[in-house]
Design goal:
The chain is of the alpha/beta class. The chain has 14 helices and 18 strands. Strand 13, helix 9 and strand 14 form a beta-alpha-beta unit.
């Protein structure tokens, strides 16, 4: 009787359906388990099951993943087929987003699972809106046969090899000529032993990604080289992401102009990588966002992997860069200053280079507009339109200079200098201290708290300013007691 009188029983079905939709985790796509929606919701009671089964939009995202701990490959097919069949049935005719990941190394026993995927993908070819596949490249010859069908609804395709470097000679042809509405392609095949080719109408794409997956770890063998020349045919792409490992063996003669590209991402993947052969051919006249990072932060990598490539790119492109992000890569101050000189309309800057001990005093002083004087005009200053700024440091000696720079870029000081006031400022402090005495560490944390309070006081008197101070301890050691046995 209490259950019948429960307020939840009086909620209209359409309201419950809306609540159910909010419960579905679409950011990473739901796992087909009874512990997550929508399966979890369908197990509560008969009424909820009926509502969940009558809402196809709850079943339009599915994520099937096999971790390294899944050693019993004999059950792979039954698990995957059950999940796929349920989602395909419940989603009715709505487009589906599908993610499949297999982190395990190649094994012949998994070929049956790959054939199952190919079968379901082909049988329901017109229903797939987005497909993301990450697995060993040794499966690619079998996997790629799924594309020989009508993929009318497919808008995004991502195929990336997992991080096992094999000596298996693999030949594969990714034929996407039937994916007439495909707009986004992300592709990465690891190793010299993968001989692949892609057939697609490159000019229909608006987003392209080559070898950009961060899961490989260190030193993929042949990034970008096989498909980099195809960028010349991608005249309509708006976003491009490139992973740079070994030298790009480009067969492209002359320059590559991408007239519509607005976002360009570069990722360092290898200690022997150099951006020269990937960056030098490019001309990007509409570039607005440039993001530079590394797949891993490795102390032993040779620091220099570029010279003036990035500033020269901005110079010859004559673009109006608005967002610049540099993370976990070597980036000398001189090259940064050159980039800023070619980015007079910059609105957002993130500078967190490698090594972590990189001194940011020079860039901080460069951004301090209170030091500008005389005939120097606002439009000629560095970052005159800067509204978002994120920096990283490891030394408390930077705090005073950082505070002075911040004060110069907010409120009346910014107006007096003729620059836009900062709206968001974030400082990441990497605590590399090796102090073990509790009193010393307590004193250090007290000083950090004082600096945080100072930042918050500045934000309190500047209502449009948001500040954030993060203390990160990236190399905190962990000690294990070893007791010798008798």
């Amino acid at each position: 009787l209490a259950v019948v009188r429960s307020p939840v029983q009086r909620i209209p079905p359409e309201i419950l359906a809306y609540i159910f939709d909010l419960c579905v985790i679409r950011g990473s796509d739901p796992q087909p388990t009874s512990a997550q929606a929508p399966l979890y919701l369908a197990r509560v009671c008969g009424t909820w099951r009926e509502i969940a089964h009558s809402c196809p939009h709850l079943w339009t995202h599915i994520n099937i993943s096999f971790s390294e701990k899944c050693t019993n490959r004999a059950t792979d097919v039954s698990k995957a087929s059950l999940a796929l069949d349920v989602w395909l049935k419940m989603s009715s005719t709505l487009p589906i987003s599908f993610i499949f990941t297999d982190h395990r190394i190649y094994h012949p026993d998994t070929q049956d699972l790959i054939r199952l995927l190919v079968d379901r993908l082909r049988q329901n070819s017109r229903q797939w809106k987005s497909i993301s596949l990450q697995l060993s490249s040794a499966y690619f010859p079998t996997l790629f046969t799924f594309t020989l069908c009508d993929l009318a609804s497919l808008e995004h395709l991502s195929i990336n090899s997992e991080g096992d470097v094999l000596t298996i000679q693999t030949r594969a042809h990714l034929n996407l000529t039937y994916a007439m509405n495909l707009k986004s392609l992300a592709y990465g095949a690891l190793g010299d032993d993968v001989h692949d080719r892609i057939s697609i109408a490159w000019d229909q794409l608006t987003e392209v990604s080559f070898e950009f997956t961060p899961s490989w770890g260190i030193s993929p063998q042949v990034p970008v080289s096989r498909h980099f020349p195809q960028l010349a045919q991608c005249q309509n792409i708006i976003t491009c992401s490139l992973g740079i490992g070994e030298r790009v063996r480009s067969r492209t003669a002359g320059s590559i102009t991408l007239p519509l590209l607005r976002t360009f991402r570069i990722r360092r993947l290898s200690p022997r990588s150099h951006v020269r052969s990937a960056i030098d051919p490019l001309i990007l006249p509409q570039l607005q966002t440039l993001e530079i990072d590394a797949a891993l932060l490795v102390v032993g990598w040779p620091p220099r992997w570029h010279d003036r490539q990035f500033s020269d790119l901005l110079a010859r492109s004559s673009c109006s860069l608005q967002n610049l992000s540099i993370r976990d890569v070597y980036f000398p101050d001189e090259e940064l200053f050159r980039c800023l000189a070619h980015s007079r309309e910059l609105k957002s800057l993130c500078f967190m280079p490698c090594p972590r001990t990189h001194d940011i005093l020079a860039i901080t002083r460069k951004l301090d507009v209170s030091r500008s004087a005389g005939a120097d005009t606002a439009v000629g200053r560095v970052g005159a339109y800067l509204r978002e700024l994120k920096l990283a440091c490891t030394s408390e000696s930077c705090f005073e200079v950082i505070m002075k720079m911040l004060v110069s870029r907010v409120g009346a000081s910014a107006r007096a200098a003729g620059v836009d006031a900062l709206r968001r400022f974030e400082l990441v402090f990497f605590d590399l201290s090796t102090e073990t005495a509790s009193s010393a560490r307590s004193a250090r944390w007290a000083r950090l708290d004082i600096f945080r309070d100072s930042l918050e006081q500045i934000a309190a008197v500047n209502e449009n300013l948001e500040v954030k101070f993060v203390v990160d301890v990236p190399y905190l050691p962990q000690y294990v007691d070893i007791t010798s046995g008798s």
